[in-house]
Amino acid sequence: xxxxxxxxxxxxxxxxxxxxxxxxxxxxxxxxxxxxxxxxxxxxxxxxxxxxxxxxxxxxxxxxxxxxxxxxxxxxxxxxxxxxxxxxxxxxxxxxxxxxxxxxxxxxxxxxxxxxxxxxxxxxxxxxxxxxxxxxxxxxxxxxxxxxxxxxxxxxxxxxxxxxxxxxxxxxxxxxxxxxxxxxxxxxxxxxxxxxxxxxxxxxxxxxxxxxxxxxxxxxxxxxxxxxxxxxxxxxxxxxxxxxxxxxxxxxxxxxxxxxxxxxxxxxxxxxxxxxxxxxxxxxxxxxxxxxxxxxxxxxxxxxxxxxxxxxxxxxxxxxxxxxxxxxxxxxxxxxxxxxxxxxxxxxxxxxxxxxxxxxxxxxxxxxxxxxxxxxxxxxxxxxxxxxxxxxxxxxxxxxxxxxxxxxxxxxxxxxxxxxxxxxxxxxxxxxxxxxxxxxxxxxxxxxxxxxxxxxxxxxxxxxxxxxxxxxxxxxxxxxxxxxxxxxxxxxxxxxxxxxxxxxxxxxxxxxxxxxxxxxxxxxxxxxxxxxxxxxxxxxxxxxxxxxxxxxxxxxxxxxxxxxxxxxxxxxxxxxxxxxxxxxxxxxxxxxxx
Length: 594
Fold this sequence. Notes:
With 594 residues, the protein is an alpha+beta fold. It has 22 helices and eleven strands.
């Protein structure tokens, strides 16, 4: 295989993709297999070019100086310029790159002639107009105007080059913009998403019915189905609506800072109010007042299935509203993952990226508020129900561990609310049935499965076992939080002095891929922390049944799916830089295993 022509750190001239202009670049890497160079602009933007699209800086300057060495006075004379030493003789064989350079020079000459021709026509029309109006001719007023025009030809040519560069960039931007149509369908395409619309609610109801069984083993599948009229209660639906709009009211309160999200495809940045933790504190105060006035919070446990049905019905109605409203949204506001043109698929994944009612962002609100805070309230209700049903003065140690671990997770998410603005849910996924059902039904009613299970199936654990489970949860939380903090800080400000110790691989998009810290350990360390915490949440339930470990199994499947989607997305986005990153960090989630 032939050796590389340009070394790392060498300054060269690279051609802009799709154009004829060359720019000064610095070589930062080389791929031996594809013979493609990675180059960097002065502003840090990276680009991958083939060797035939790169010229050495010395030859480029020599050619340029020879083409412009003649003065304007010499160009007006009839002297014939001698052949440049850099130009090949007629009988000399030219390489493909030299032939391309020659064509580029010819195009520049054609542009020069066109500019001169347009200027002459403009001068001629201006002079004719002035003569018709009785004004003196421009050459009579200033007989050096033609000379000044001729001397300004090269600046005019540079202006033309700048215009051409601008057109090329606009063309590339339009190409990226128009290519936002979803081509690769996830979740099994149209048939898969249609099935999931019914399968997801059925899964939630099955899990809740099984937890109510005295022996929730797989041998007792399917559980006895309740009467349909018992699944709906108008009062319960009213309580759910009250909860939803109470959280919306907290969201609208003018407390907390307002921050900008990441740039959209149009370059616009949306504004978000960060007050989720304040909403949690206000909710805790409201629950405390209800308990002070002896409100029976275990009402949630007694009507848990009806609350799940009410939440599912509301999420379906919200999804229909979101899809109808998205049909009126401009093309640039549609989600890149939910713009397939297929009704069922776009309804499931979300057609519009950031649906809003005025400044009220529906997706951002549902992401952290009603479901996540509701999860903590449900866990508290299960704790109180356990004490009442089993006549306990104190909750069991297992219930305390589950409540504490999951409370820490929710408080952490609300405290670091700003970090959610960099997640795929906000930046890439639309707001449709998938996220609406997930935020309002799956999170509060499936994530609280361990607490719901412990009410009907109390499990006693010793203090040493509880201590070991606590240590496991702390390890998972530390990995999860520190990895996410590294990622979010680096995304927002790579030049932060606190991140100076981190190394990264530059990419053509101008972003970097971290190869030290947690992200140099595995490709998705935050997923590793999630799995460890999910296991710690289930262990207090013991090993009598597999049902409490459904969350762990589901979470592993979810993260493997997300990891595969992230891999595909990053490979398309970062190209060769991602391949280099994968060679540097071979393990995806679990080191030495996966």
